[in-house]
Amino acid sequence: MDVELAAKSVSRSEELDDDGRIKRTGNVFTASIHIVTVVVGAGVLALAWAMAQLGWIPGLATMIIFACISIYTYNLVADCYRYPDPINGKRNYTYMQAVDAYLGGTMHVFCGLIQYGKLAGLTVGYTITSSTSLVAIKKAICFHKRGHQAYCRFSNNPFMLGFGMLQILLSQIPNFHKLTCLSTVAAITSFCYALIGSGLSLAVVVSGKGETTRVFGNKVGPGLSEADKMWRVFSALGNIALACSYATVVYDIMDTLKSYPPECKQMKKANVLGITTMTILFLLCGSLGYAAFGDDTPGNILTGFGFYEPFWLVALGNVCIVIHMIGAYQVLAQPLFRIIEMGANMAWPGSDFINKEYPTKIGSLTFSFNLFRLIWRTIYVAVVTIIAMVMPFFNEFLALLGAIGFWPLIVFFPIQMHIAQKQIKRLSFKWCLLQLLSFVCFLVSVVAAVGSIRGISKNIKKYKLFMYKQ
């Protein structure tokens, strides 16, 4: 009997990892796939516009430099998955937890503000992106039926309202982000619209209809002042920075890896593979789009109507964007919902309004709802939708999000955690080099943020509130 119990105990222990959780089975390949899935978003479609502002040499160099910085700093993040030792230390399950372990409570709070602020901003960006794509579908059909010179301009607002109402319903589903099919659908649709945009651009170039391009981007002239050129370059840096970011989920990816070889070693290989694949895709999308449209490259190559035919393929690409945005919105919003609801639960543990679940049955469907969840999530989605309607500017808003997240999440925290982990002496040569890299990236984030804010404010002056049409 004792032998049997011992055998069962050994068998059970073999099914668990060192932290008592079910044994993880992920590997370098699966982690690489996760990275590519996360980073291939609607921001990819703005890279052609960024290339048009920067030109061939600065544009290609910027994408490659951002990729190299990302590989280096994400490898530093990988070493901080465990504390204090990267091989045998205690696991950090979230980015914020790692910051808290290595840098303390103040930095932990700062990291949380940046992370959750960016998540909230991305939900606004996804609302804008979805409405822009829905309008593009309607325009594709309109141009096909009435000709390419027809007046086909529509308001984004009805589509934003419809998208917002759908998100209010989806927001009431507990743990929506954990639906197993969600990542698969997101991966398929994101690759579909990226490849459709690149394929249509390639067709234009191969047919000989590509526009003139320049080594240093759009030429200063009657339609573009030197100041406007500079601000556009700054905004383009933000667009590229956003496309490189997966810091908010990097530890979620690491937490899927098997324990041997050490997670940090596996993740470093995955970072190289994932970011290299991502960069190749970015270079293809950006370069082909710029080669197709030149100075007139639209902010989004699938919604700016450089392509009219085949109209069904343009529409299909935009349908894929909308499907991706519907699920991605919830993936980003659910962590924000949870942190607020956990905080409310801790503050008022005896409140029925906050904690009580009401079982409900409609026909064969059984579910439960919570009053606080219903009201707070509805208000959140409504506010996000209103902000998107006030500032429906695709490129500028994505650039702002990229600028906000790039320096703190991709550069500053990884470098500071690495310094703390390795106990690098202040003012030593390596310390100075790391701080120089951080400072340069800080300047990039600042100019990108200023450029995007300036673009948003300039566009707001051009249209009447809630009357934007594209």
SSE map:
Blueprint (H helix, E strand, L loop, with lengths): L1 H13 L13 H12 L7 H8 L1 H24 L2 E2 L6 E2 L3 H9 L1 H42 L10 H15 L8 H27 L19 H18 L6 H5 L8 H31 L17 H37 L4 H4 L2 E5 L2 E5 L1 H20 L3 H29 L6 H32 L10
Antiparallel strand pairs: 1-2, 3-4
Helix pairs in contact: 2-11, 3-4, 3-9, 3-11, 4-11, 4-15, 5-6, 5-15, 6-7, 6-12, 6-14, 6-15, 7-12, 7-14, 8-11, 8-12, 9-15, 9-16, 15-16
Organism: Glycine max
Protein name: Amino acid transporter transmembrane domain-containing protein
InterPro entries: AA_transpt_TM
Question: Top keywords for this entry?
Answer:
470 residues, Hydantoin permease, transmembrane, two-stranded antiparallel sheet, single chain, mainly alpha
What does this structure look like?
This protein is mainly α and 470 residues long. The protein is 69% helix and 3% strand. It has a single domain, classed as Hydantoin permease, CATH 1.10.4160. It is globular, with a radius of gyration of 24 Å. Belongs to the amino acid/polyamine transporter 2 family. Amino acid/auxin permease (AAAP) (TC 2.A.18.1) subfamily. GO terms for molecular function: amino acid transmembrane transporter activity; symporter activity. Residues 25-455 form the Amino acid transporter transmembrane domain.
